[in-house]
Design a protein that fits this description.
- With 173 residues, this protein is mainly alpha-helical.
- It has one domain.
Length: 173
């Protein structure tokens, strides 16, 4: 399962990186066209869709690499079994939320595909295309959290990438 999860998270991270590159290229094209007196319409919508893809599709990748910002007020003060239990509880809560988000986003994407929904702006892009990147991100985050929960339960320890900063530093030594 870890290999499948790692591959899915890398794909999500790659989609996120490509979306960021595409945003830069679209904005550069808009600026260049404006300087040349060429009117561009609808590219703001494209940038909005790419921004959603860039933000969400990399969720799992960021989690697997310990890059999410966390509030560790309670977890960093607890040590031993209490600290592990607190962290496991937070992983389980995150898994529940991410699983629901993955279900809802995937269902929304499927409904948009089956109904043939298109954007209401100047560009009639099928909405399932940008929604698929959001669904990918929520699914990879749920997979990454599931992998972290399984590892925490199986080995009785918090996975290094999912650990709070002090635990991560100790694991790297």
């Amino acid at each position: 399962m870890n290999r499948v999860c790692a591959l899915a998270c890398r794909v999500g991270g790659a989609v996120s990186a490509l979306a960021i590159i595409a945003i830069v290229l679209v904005v550069l094209a808009q600026v260049t066209c404006r300087l040349l007196g060429i009117v561009t319409r609808g590219l703001d919508e494209v940038v909005a869709w790419l921004t959603a893809a860039a933000c969400v599709s990399g969720f799992g990748y960021a989690f697997m690499h310990g890059a999410h910002v966390r509030v560790e007020l309670l977890a960093e003060r607890l040590h031993g079994a209490w600290g592990r239990a607190c962290h496991l509880a937070s992983l389980l809560a995150g898994l529940a939320i991410a699983s629901y988000a993955a279900y809802a986003c995937t269902l929304m994407t499927w409904e948009s595909y089956t109904l043939g929904d298109v954007g209401q702006g100047l560009i009639a892009l099928p909405l399932w295309i940008p929604q698929a990147a959001v669904a990918l991100g929520t699914v990879t985050l749920a997979l990454a959290l599931l992998s972290a929960v399984v590892e925490a339960l199986r080995h009785g320890r918090v996975p290094a990438a999912a650990a709070p900063a002090p635990m991560r530093a100790a694991a790297e030594i």
